[in-house]
Every structure is written in structure tokens, then in C-alpha cells.
Amino acid sequence: MAVTHGTPGAEDPVVRLEGIGKSFFGVPVLRGVDLSLHAGEVHALVGENGAGKSTLLKVLAGVHRPDSGRIVVRDEEISFASPRDAQAAGIAIIHQEFTLLEHRTVAENVLLGREPVRRGQVDRRALEAETRRLLDWLGEDGIEPGTEVARLSVARKQVVEIVKALSADARVLAMDEPTAALADNEVELLYGLVRRLRDRGIAILYVSHRMREVFDLSSRITVLKDGAFVTCAPTADLDTDQVVRHMVGRPLEALYPERASRPGAVRIALRGAGNERVRNLTFEVRAGEIVGLAGLQGSGRSAIARAIWGIEPFTTGTVELDGVPTRVTGPRTAVRKGIGYVTEDRKGEGLALRQSVRDNTLLVRRAACRGAAARQAADLTRLLGEVGVVARGPHQEVRYLSGGNQQKVVLGKWLAVRPRVLIVDEPTRGVDVGAKQALYRLLRELADDGMAILMISSELPELIGMSDRILVMHEGALAGELPAGADEETVMALATGHGTAA
Ligand SMILES: Nc1ncnc2c1ncn2[C@@H]1O[C@H](COP(=O)(O)OP(=O)(O)OP(=O)(O)O)[C@@H](O)[C@H]1O
Ligand SMILES: [Mg+2]
Asked: How far does residue 53's CA lie from ligand 2's centre (Å)?
């Protein structure tokens, strides 16, 4: 029995999904899925990219109407014509993408469309007081109702998103990869909130690709595969290997590939490089190497990537490519000089959502090489196979792909030009374990082929598992360098400004 918090009547599920089926364009995406949610439980929903998790959440939230099956809320069968109906039934959802209005205040966002009115005007005092009450109830005293959302950290925005979702008296909260955009140190903030909500009797459905998180938070786990229900069991009865096997359909051997045998010549070198955000950076990345870049959110990891790629160039020091001092003044030069950059923000910078998989993949190659060097589109299929993109075909629009598959397209785009230096920023965000393994192998193969790879990741196990060396950033400067296989504590000590490199 999953319920441990003694909420009255908690034995009956708050919501039951029974035999849910859903097709898009005649293709079945959910096939007879069952799921029940109890008050005071965190129920994890896991599965590979495209397994149907987000679709199931959207059925629960009234965004999609199921083609078959029943939704039962407190013993009453209900059909939702819109998200509003689901909201009225006490069901709130946090989608995979943020929905907040950046230039409005916390309070304006939380009560958007439901603002208290006095004499025909929005009552700002009541608005902020009501938001304050909600924040207090959740034990979130670090957020001011009057603050503009744009000024909050990603983690705090996530909290506001949750407060907003709950403000309509939700009993059920469905969260779609809520930590995907968070750094390791910010995840704790969210964990605390999820636990408090659970303790207040909210039923939580939690979608995540991070196994550690699933095991830390949930009391039950449901696995979906190819749109079908595979199993549901108490978390205590499962281990990571079992869950992965259920998800992938086979045991997954070594997640991380073997490291490089011997690195080659220096491909990129920074000598005393700096700008407004980072200072005095001196390091090299050799052909065949994957160098990890660790650090807290805001420590300057992405700033390094952006500077190397010429978005916000270095203003001091030098950058050498294959031994030649080089000035990269913008992304176009960067691409011409053979530097690739997989950004952390795939929606904002990485993809043209309304274009096809094919066009996205060829985007950089077209910009980089006019004619001559461009290989034929014939090897596009091979390329997409290499990155493991699951799409209905090269002409499918990217916005219809699942989150993880979009990430693979971003990587595929760079593979099409085979850069000398590849910077990857959070490359596996939202990617399922099976696909992660494939992406790791791919990155290692590229390195073995002579590419120099700089990898930024907030998931420490991944960074440690993949890197030949780890550079740790702290407040805009290098705090130290660690060898392959360093432990998480040592990385975190450097990242937080304590400890020294070995
Ligand atoms: N609006 C839509 N139109 C067409 N196909 C869709 C639509 N939404 C989802 N799909 C397809 O349904 C399948 C399931 O997608 P869904 O987003 O539910 O997967 P997921 O389990 O959430 O994956 P991920 O872990 O990558 O987020 C995918 O094949 C996806 O391409
Ligand atoms: Mg999803």
C-alpha cells in the first residue's frame, strides 16, 4: 500500500485512468493504459522517449480527449472537454515547457485570469496577499509576490509554476519532467516542495528520466513502453536496473563507454581568456578527449561556451584552434572554423520547431559549407539513425517529436558538419536512458575520430561517467581540474568554493 500519510479516505484513489487509448493521425500512442493516483503519494511515471508519458498527462489534464477508456475522479466517471474541466475537478498539470509570463509579477502569474477585483479594478493588495498565503502554505518564503518573474532563478520559476497550478484548489498535481531545466543544486528546492505537497495530501504524478530522483521521491512506479502499460509496483520492490529493463525491454549494460586511450594534439586552447562573465581561463582540449565542465548554475559554464562560439566573445586573452590564434566574432565564424555548439536551450536556440527533421538537420551544414564540402542528403537517413531519432520520417515537423527526440535532432544537426571542436551543453536533458547510452557512445566515437569535445552537464553522474578530465568552475573562474573518475563530493566541493583539486 502506497499511502503512508494517514489522509482520511486515502485508500481510494483520487483519480483512476482505465484503459486509456489515444491515437494521433491514426498512429496509436497510448494503448489501454491504467493508472491510479492516491492522496499523499508520489507516483512516478517512466518510459523511453515517445513512450506516451506526456500524452497520458495531457489526457489527465483535459488537453487531449482519449479515444477510449475512462477517467474516474473520486468514483465518478468524468469526461474533460478542456483543461478548464480538469482544473475544476482538482487536477493541475506542470507541462514540460514553462508557461509563465516573464514580465509580469509572481502574483500576476499565479492568479492569471482569476485576479481578485475591487470596484472594477484588479485589487493588487488582495492579489499579492492571496499569493503570499499560497506561498506560505507551501513553505516557500524565499519568493516575493511582487517580484517580476524574469528576475527569478529557473528553480524559483518552477516553484511559481507549481503554485500557480495549485492555486485552483488542486488535489492532483501531474508534473512533466519538472527538474529537466534545473541544476543539481536547485533540485533540492523542488524536492522539498514535492514532499511538502505530498504530506499535505496532494496526489502527485511525477514524470522523470532521472532514476535517482524517481527512487528518492516516489512510492510507486508505473512503466510505459510504446504506449502500453508494462508494470506498476511499489518503489521499494524495484531497483534501477529492473526499472530500466522494463523501460528499454532489455538489460542495459555499461551506460558509459570506455574512455579514450590516448588523446591527440591540442585542438582548442584558451590562454587567459575572459570577458564580463568569466575570467582568466587557461585550458586545452585535445583531439580524442571529452573534457567535462562542472559548476553550479551561473558559475560561467555556458558563458564559456557562448564566448568560444562568439555569441559573447572573449575580450581578453587568446583562443587557439589547432595551434593557430583565432578570433571568433560570431556563430557564423565559429561554424566556419569548425566549432559546433549544442545549446542547453533546445527550444530557444537549438531547433526550428515548425520545420522538418530533415531541414533542421541540414540547417548548420547549409550555413557552414556552400556546396563543395556538403555531403549529399542521402546520408541523412544514416545520420538520423546514428543519433537514434524516432520520427515518422525526415519530413515530420520537429514540434511533433517527443522531447528526447528533439534533443537528438539538435545533435544530429552538428554531426552533419563534423566540427573539430564540439561543445555540448546539457546534451541529454530529457533523454531516456536507452537513448542516453546511444548518445554517450556517439559522443565517444566522435572523440575517437579526432573531435575535441567540451561537455557541460548538471548531472554529475553523467559528467563523471563521460569525462576524461573535469574542469570545475566557481564564480566565473576555474576552481580546479580533476582526473577521470573523480567523485561527486570532490566536484561539488570545488564547485561551491571549498576544497582543492587533487
Ligand atoms: N500532438 C501530437 N501530434 C502527433 N503526434 C504526437 C503529438 N503529441 C505526441 N505525439 C507522438 O506521440 C508519441 C508519444 O509522445 P509523448 O510526448 O507522450 O512521449 P513521452 O513519453 O512524453 O516522451 P519524452 O520522454 O521524450 O518526453 C510520440 O511518438 C510523439 O511523436
Ligand atoms: Mg514527454
From this structure: 6
